[in-house]
Write a structure and sequence with these properties.
Distance between the termini: 69 Å
Radius of gyration: 34 Å
Structural class: alpha/beta
Number of strands: 32
Mean pLDDT: 91
Strand order of the largest sheet: 5-6-11-7-8-9-10
Low-confidence stretches: 3-21
Largest sheet: 7 strands, antiparallel
Helix content: 40-55%
């Protein structure tokens, strides 16, 4: 787009007010594109010139409006794969659209006026161009179908057919990276299963004439993975996620053996870090995107993070790596004489390059075609004096590294590892003075620690300015009543703990002695985590602009950081003043136009003209004076302060000597920068105008003043800084609203200033983000010459990432979508509940940090439904629905099915919330999607799920018993029999799950339904049947006869613990009975309402909640003598839902807690079974209050051999009725869970243990889900409280408890 491009080609913004108002008249354009850019993209430059001329002499404008409607239809389909897919599938709908397009062009033709030949000739040219665009649009569908057929036929011989994806979900997920910049959708996305498939895929793509874009985590900030051609095949590496164990290797040219680790290109950075840490080592490549970035991307971008200050970036730590070249051969690159530290310190760096025959899928045994040695000076890697620098793309001809995927396809790598000193201190320094103190403080700290005083080293130093601090809701550690201007967080390490303490204290004292600073030291892992946590959420800076920002990472020499900060603050000050002046301008327009005072009754019979006669001139006078002052400040920031003070005094602003005396010898900029001289909207404008327009009669005027302020403020541009301060890598972020054309232009101005300043100060324009699309216009051409010669030699056809790192590429084709523009169809949005969905996801940053926690993101199971990907798809589907709701074709049912597909690919675990910088909970978004589909009558649940939901809603005893017999006793048995019968077929679905986009066929659904056995019910009856609680009008109180005055609790068993697995509810009651607690049960079977809420049936869920709360109030009134202070549950899902019941209002002062937490509070613990070790599966909706539930579990149960209970993570795949509703997706989810179970079973079995392994859990649904792994993992699932009852009360605990409760008068029934 014009607002994100090479500055040399930047288009000037519209000059006139009329032109500015006509920036976006093309309908359905929910993007940053202006009308000009759409016309040029679809019709060409000449068309825009003709259109501008014709509109300059416009008569009615109807012809241009009809042309714009044609272009709007084409543009919205062109950039929305869901609309495109619908038209590909439905010939009739496509025909209707094409007829509408041709009809409009014919109407334009009818309105021609041959009496004006010159004008008519221009119209004829435009009509011809429009017809050509429509014909191209019409024939594109046939071309797409033919191309897909060719691609599929060619690629199916290289990888599984299931890995070749043309569906709109995958194309949308791979159209952009963390920038949200878009150019073209890829024609195909390929997800190869292994490294061995890559050479054949490359050769096939070359033969098809496709451009290959390698892609890992999609976390880039410069558009390096954004497809630039519609003939692009994106090859996703996320399945290539192999991570080996750390081992000692003899590297060539290195005397001692070195710890290394081997990884696939798709391995997530954080997982590599964890694997190295498990063996006691440090993997030092740690970008802020570590939770989602991949190894291949780290090499291609030469990434680094806070540890780069110690051990450098990716290139410094590579031992060897493998890639595939443009001719489909293997290329292995090995460093020969590794210096085991930063590469630039080595005078000559040697690499061995080995080319092997790619026709052999096994690179280890492939025939060697050639070998050569590459020699390069170490000093060329980065500019002298800079800790990072990725601007030298040639890098001595070293393949892949820093090449941004333009010279080959990286498949795997081996990395050297390091040993971190034994002790770490994290220091947090809060600065309350001017932001310019950042530079001196950073220099002082680094200079002090560079000498390694007392063997202490700096292992990371990060900086956040005040804008970032506000964005991440930074919790101030200082007790003073002020907010920091900046914060530094750093790690200092040493093997000598006492020396480390002294040096850390010295660092704090250095800063405190030279600036207004307070320092805090974290000594424990928990404290250190809290100190670093805010740094991980820096992407939240752009939340207020709906997540679009320009992210520029420059590198500044440490002694120049203060100068750079000043330059950015100067820009911010200018933008702030300009924005405030724009507010004054808008207010003057308002006061010069029509002013509404609301209802006549508000004016008390006084004429409006009379009321405004004095107030409006007074307001204009104030605005004129304010504009004069602010304009003077803006234009005279570098004027001597003494001179400026006199002028400002004339303009009505007094500057007292006592406040401003220290600036006498300086410039006006200094007091403005120090915020001593404030340009205050509230004080100088708002308060003055509110004084003039006071009283009820001017209420609407005051509201409009605030509305104008908010509207104009939304367009204010600012630069926010955070940095890897130890190496001068400054992340310069510019949040922008992509629907605000002027703001986007100002953003580009900010980028230009940033790049010029970085270069002027001797820095580099990129330290780790790369060049990509956004920085190519600022890179010195001389730095590209050697690279261009290299890349055209190794890839003459530019197969890999064609268009990237080319100095002459056309960047005007870049655009970004805008959630703000979706709101223009607010009536449709609100009527259909789409606005709720849109508002819930609009702040997504596309950073991908949700991937690591998402249960529906399991790449090797062909499951890529991370919240990041689903949000991109959701926004496009919302756009599709808004568009089609305004056409005569109407809404396509296909879009509702695709929406349903997104809603079904979620287990509602809500685990995406914590890692998300802007706190999007896609579980709640999924519920909104399901609610929307329910209202649209487009919720298609299979019979098994419907039956399960109905079972949960039954409350009569006989009904529950009958349904349980059919569903559980007979249904589970039938499933187990079918599992045995179909076992050979079902095993394939476990080993290689297929992608699940769209509903599978009946046969596939049936096979995945039985591929893992359901457990055999332990009890034939429900909890109420066992305890003979058959009267729904009475509330049972279960207690020992001697415990009449004991503590009383209310226990809500929930569906799972009294209908499906009654042994859980009975174990809970038995344990409470044993410790002498009185337990009150509900009078009948109840469901908490969460299954209905989660399924999208909001009305039924609300009805259940209301009915339950009414019943509980009645119960509380009846049993108020028991003074119930605790409500207990034994299900995390019930816990989540019951929090909304507000039990503290029902049983005054009560608390809601899990049975296990209650037993823990009472000091109850048991010894585990002999020859048994335990794993613990924490439910997605954990019922535990502690942040680390496994600690509580270890307190409750002590394995007999003294071992520890270990945590097994990931969702079990059951998720209520999810497993029966979409067993195919559940199969994919279980793929990852089984891996984790087996990994942790191996860990818990260390030391020659050959006994049994039990998996404990605290959720009845998880108990069912974990039982499905019993056969394949050799484990046994058990509920924690059941295991505790068994170990505390004996093998016959159940029969003993039932006998005591039922036969010995342990149950009192009270009428409610």
């Amino acid at each position: 787009m014009d607002s994100i491009q090479n500055p040399a080609g930047a288009a000037a913004p519209a000059k006139t007010a009329d032109a500015a108002a006509r920036i976006r008249e093309i309908p359905y354009n929910y993007t940053s594109y202006s009308d000009r850019e759409i016309v040029i993209r679809l019709l060409g430059e000449k068309a825009w010139q003709l259109l501008t001329e014709l509109r300059g002499e416009r008569r009615t404008g109807r012809s241009s409006r009809m042309l714009y409607e044609v272009l709007g239809d084409i543009w919205v389909v062109y950039r929305n794969p869901y609309l495109q897919e619908d038209l590909l599938e439905n010939v009739e709908r496509r025909k209707l659209l094409l007829e509408a397009l041709e009809h409009r062009i014919k109407e334009i033709d009818k309105r021609r006026d041959p009496q004006h030949p010159e004008r008519d000739a221009k119209v004829v040219q435009l009509i011809s161009m429009a017809y050509k665009a429509v014909r191209k649009f019409e024939t594109s569908f046939g071309r797409i179908k033919a191309l897909r057929s060719r691609i599929f036929k060619a690629l199916k011989h290289c990888t599984r057919e299931d890995n070749i994806r043309f569906d709109p979900f995958m194309r949308a997920a791979h159209v952009t990276d963390a920038t949200d910049l878009r150019i073209e959708y890829p024609c195909v996305v390929v997800t190869p299963d292994s490294e061995s498939e890559i050479p054949a895929l490359v050769r096939a793509c070359v033969a098809l004439g496709l451009v290959i874009t390698p892609r890992g985590g999609g976390t880039g900030y410069t558009g390096g993975a954004v497809p630039m051609s519609e003939m692009t095949a994106v090859i996703n590496t996320e399945k290539l996620d192999h991570i080996g164990r750390a081992f000692m290797a003899q590297l060539p040219g290195v005397d001692e053996r070195v710890p290394v680790i081997h990884t696939g290109a798709g391995a997530v950075t954080r997982r590599v870090t964890e694997a190295a840490a498990a063996d006691g080592y440090v993997f030092s490549v740690d970008p802020a995107s570590a939770d989602s970035s991949t190894i291949g991307g780290n090499i291609a971008e030469n990434s680094g993070g806070k540890k780069a200050v110690l051990w450098g970036t990716a290139v410094d730590n590579l031992a060897s790596y493998r890639m595939v070249t443009a001719d489909g051969n293997w290329l292995e690159v090995e460093r020969v004489n590794h210096n085991l530290e930063k590469i630039h310190k080595q005078e000559t760096v040697l690499w061995k390059l080995t080319v092997k025959d790619g026709k052999n899928p096994d690179p280890a045994s492939a025939r060697v075609l050639s070998t050569r040695e590459l020699s390069m000076p170490g000093k060329i890697v980065r500019k002298k004096g800079l800790g990072k620098d990725v601007t030298n793309k040639f890098l001595g001809g070293l393949p892949a590294v820093q090449k941004e995927g333009t010279d080959g396809f990286i498949t795997s790598a081996t990395w050297i590892l390091h040993k971190m000193p034994a002790h770490t201190r994290t220091v947090c320094l809060e600065f309350f003075g001017a932001a310019k103190l950042a530079g001196p403080a950073i220099v002082q700290i680094t200079q002090f620690l560079d000498s390694h005083p007392e063997s202490c080293m700096l292992a990371g130093l990060e900086h956040l300015d005040d804008r970032y601090l506000h964005a991440v809701n930074y919790p101030v550690k200082s007790s003073r009543d002020a907010y920091p201007k900046m914060v530094l967080v750093g790690d200092i390490v040493s093997d000598d703990e006492e020396a480390l303490e002294r040096v850390t204290q010295k660092v704090v004292s250095i800063c405190q002695s030279t600036s207004d600073c307070e320092g805090f030291i974290a000594r424990t892992d928990e404290e250190r985590f809290r100190f670093w946590h805010e740094r991980s959420r820096t992407a939240a800076i752009s939340a207020h602009t709906n997540a679009f920002k320009l992210n520029e990472d420059v590198v500044i020499p440490l002694d120049k950081i203060g100068d750079y900060t000043l330059a950015c603050e100067r820009f911010n000050i200018r933008c702030s003043i300009e924005n405030k002046i724009a507010m004054v301008d808008e207010l003057e327009k308002y006061f010069s136009g029509y002013i509404s005072l609301g209802k006549p009754t508000m004016t008390a019979g006084v004429a409006k003209e009379t009321l405004l006669a004095e107030s409006v001139p007074a307001a204009k006078k104030i605005l004129a004076a304010v504009r004069a002052r602010w304009t003077y400040v803006l234009e005279n920031l570098d004027t001597r302060f003494a001179e400026a003070a006199e002028k400002l005094h004339e303009l009505g602003l007094a500057l007292p000597e006592k406040d401003f005396g220290k600036y006498a010898e300086g410039t006006l900029f200094e007091p403005v920068y120090d915020r001593v001289l404030r340009i205050s909207w509230k004080k100088e404008v708002r308060s003055e105008l509110f004084h003039i327009f006071s009283g009820d009669v001017f209420e609407k005027v005051r509201a409009e003043i605030d509305a104008i302020h908010n509207r104009v403020l939304r367009g204010r541009v600012f630069i926010a800084l955070h940095m890897h301060a130890g190496d001068g890598n400054v992340h310069t972020n510019i949040p922008l609203n992509s629907d605000n054309y002027a703001m986007m232009q100002k953003g580009i101005e900010a980028v230009e200033m940033v790049m010029k300043t970085a270069s002027k100060l001797g820095g580099a324009i990129s330290g780790e983000h790369g060049i990509g699309l956004t920085k190519i216009g600022f890179l010195d051409r001389a730095l590209l010459d050697d690279y261009l010669e290299y890349v055209h030699t190794v890839d003459p056809a530019r197969v890999f990432n064609r268009g990237k790192l080319e100095p002459d590429i056309n960047l005007r084709r870049i655009y970004t979508p805008s959630f703000n523009l979706l709101g223009s169809e607010s009536l449709i949005m609100q009527q259909s509940q789409l606005k709720l969905i849109s508002d819930a996801i609009k702040n997504c940053l596309r950073c991908g940090k949700c991937k690591s926690k998402c249960t529906t993101h399991v790449p090797r199971a062909s499951l890529l439904y991370s919240p990041r990907n689903k949000i991109i798809a959701t926004s496009l589907l919302i756009e599709s629905i808004l568009y089609e709701s305004q056409t005569r074709r109407g809404l396509s049912k296909l879009h509702l099915k695709e929406f349903e597909d997104l809603g079904e690919h979620c287990t509602l675990c809500m685990k995406c919330l914590n890692p998300c910088p802007v706190k999007i909970n896609f579980g709640e978004v999924t519920i909104l999607i399901r609610n929307f589909l329910e209202r649209m009558n487009c919720h298609h649940d299979p019979i098994a799920k419907k039956a399960g939901m109905k079972f949960l809603e039954i409350s009569s005893n006989n009904g529950v018993e009958l349904a349980r017999k059919g569903l559980v006793q007979w249904g589970f048995k039938a499933q187990r029999l079918a599992s045995d019968l179909l076992s050979p077929v079902a095993k394939t679905t476990l080993q290689h799950p297929k992608n699940t986009t769209g509903r599978p066929g009946v046969v596939e659904q049936a096979i995945t339904m039985v591929n893992r056995k359901l457990p055999k019910p332990r009890l034939p009856k429900t909890l109420r049947a066992v305890l003979e609680l058959n009267d729904p009008t009475t509330a049972p109180i279960i207690r020992k006869p001697s415990a009449v005055d004991a503590e009383a609790v209310f226990y809500f068993p929930g569906c799972g613990n009294e209908r499906l697995y009654p042994e859980v509810g009975l174990a809970t009651l038995a344990m409470l009975y044993d410790i002498g607690v009185q337990t009150v049960l509900p009078p009948k079977f109840l469901c908490c309402g969460y299954p209905q809420r989660g399924a999208g049936n909001h009305a039924l869920a609300e009805q259940i909640v209301t009915n339950n709360r009414v019943l509980f109030h009645r119960l509380a009134n009846t049993l108020n003598y028991l003074d119930i202070k605790t409500v207990l549950v034994s299900c995390g899902t019930c816990m989540k839902q019951l929090k909304d019941y507000h039990f503290e209002e029902i049983f005054p002062g009560c608390r809601l807690m899990d049975i296990h937490d209650f037993l823990h509070e009472k000091g109850i613990s048991v010894q585990g079974e002999d020859n048994v070790r335990y794993l613990y599966h924490d439910p997605c909706h954990t019922p535990f209050a502690a942040p680390a539930p496994v600690k509580t579990v270890n307190d409750l149960i002590h394995p007999a051999d003294g071992s520890k209970v270990l945590l097994t993570e990931r969702c079990c795949g059951e998720s209520g009725t999810f497993a029966v509703g979409r067993p195919d997706i559940a199969t994919q989810v279980r793929f990852k869970k089984e891996e984790d179970i087996l990994k942790n079973k191996a860990r818990v079995s260390d030391g020659g243990f050959y006994g049994r392994v039990k998996i404990l859990t605290a959720c009845p649904g998880c108990l069912q889900g974990l039982s499905r792994y019993n056969e394949t993992s050799g484990t046994k699932a058990e509920f924690l409280v059941v295991e505790m009852a068994h170990m505390r009360l004996g093998d016959h605990w159940l029969s003993t408890f039932v006998e005591q409760a039922v036969d010995e008068g342990g149950i009192e029934k009270v009428l409610v």
